[in-house]
Amino acid sequence: MASEEDTDMLSKEERDQRDKEDRERERAEQAALPYKWTQELGEVDITVPVPKGTRGKDLKVVIEKNKLSVALKGQEPILSGELCKEIKVGDSTWTVQDQQVVLIHLEKINQQTWWENVLTHHPKIDTRKIEPANSKLSDLDGETRGMVEKMMFDNQQKQMGKPTSDELKKMEALKKFQAAHPELDFTNAKIS
Questions:
Q1: Is there a contact between 94 and 103 (Cβ–Cβ < 8 Å)?
Q2: Which has the closest alpha carbon to 97: 63, 60, 58, 52?
Q3: Residues 70/80, Cβ–Cβ less than 8 Å
Q4: pLDDT digit string (tens) for the chain, length 192 residues
Q5: CA distances in angstroms from 132 to 19, 40, 112, 113, 127, listed in the order given
Q6: How far is the C-alpha of 89 from the C-alpha of 105, rounded, in Å?
Q7: Which of 6, 55, 56, 170 is the S-S candidate for 2 at Cβ 3.0 to 4.6 Å?
Q8: 159-175 in b/e burial notation, b at 16+ Cβ within 10 A?
Q9: Is 169 left (phi over 0), alpha (psi -120 to 50) or beta?
């Protein structure tokens, strides 16, 4: 992935082309996984194809706070590893559908973040491109939309280790104050 500075130097057409290539690469990486997955802010749903005729007793499924494993008994796991974020084990479930698909439902502990992947060693998706399926920002009234956009911005900033909008406002106010009062020395000041 290109850095933000690199992206800022590109024309709109070049950015669109890069986004298209990133989406294609992401789609190919996700298609190569031995499962499909979808997510909402509070949950992740995974479908794992298994041989027709598979029943629950034929499977070994392990769902832990930060681990997931699915295997046919006596065989290597179909998927196994560390979850990218922690889950609520008691609210997470699995079942076999039509004796050919394992459905896994995971409840996220942090219900305000998008997952980049299911297992940490699998390819990541760009969570900045996610639009919740059941709502569009344009459907919201102005005040609510502004609040949601601010929350999304702040969440994205936190994930990148950058200051939130409130922190940016405080920093800007401090700069203005310092410019207006050059006689004051802020070198050892602790600002919170």
A1: yes
A2: 52
A3: yes
A4: 444 545 557 788 888 888 888 888 888 999 999 999 999 888 999 999 999 999 999 999 999 999 999 999 999 999 999 999 999 999 999 999 999 999 999 999 988 888 999 999 998 888 877 766 555 566 666 676 677 777 778 877 877 888 888 888 888 888 888 888 888 877 777 766
A5: 19, 7, 12, 12, 11
A6: 10
A7: 6
A8: eeeeebeeeeeeeeeee
A9: alpha
Structure-block tokens of residue 144: 């609510």
* Closest-CA residue to 67 (of 76, 57, 77, 54): 77
d(CA 118, CA 48): 13
Residues paired with residue 68 on neighbouring β-strands, in sequence order: 63, 81
Tokens of residue 146, six digits: 């502004």
For 7, list phi and psi in degrees, rounded to 5: -65, -40
Place of tokens 């900033």: 157
Judge whether 157 and 164 are in contact, CB under 8 Å. Answer: yes
